[in-house]
What does this fold into?
Amino acid sequence: MSKPVCVVVGVEPGNGAAIARQFPATGYCVALLARNQAYLKELEGEVKDSQAYLYDVTAIETSPTVFNQIQADLGAVNILVYNAGSGLFGNLDIRVGCEAVW
It folds into this structure.
């Protein structure tokens, strides 16, 4: 019987890598998906039972190809962790007006 498969989409230093590192300890193999090929290969060398796949979530048309390859290489996906996204960092200035009620 093969190991269950966890796919982590959006593997970069930080949450994605931390999440990916946890699954092999519980018996999963891990598909690492991200746009940064150099980092993916580095992480693949560090995370036991993992395989890297170059994937950009904004290129929706490539999803079937990538996920079919994962299934062919590792087996059916049991868990999908979607960690991809982008953030906007800065200050938030909220001004709330209020009236005194007498």
The CA atoms of residues 30 and 93 lie 41 Å apart. The mean pLDDT is 88.
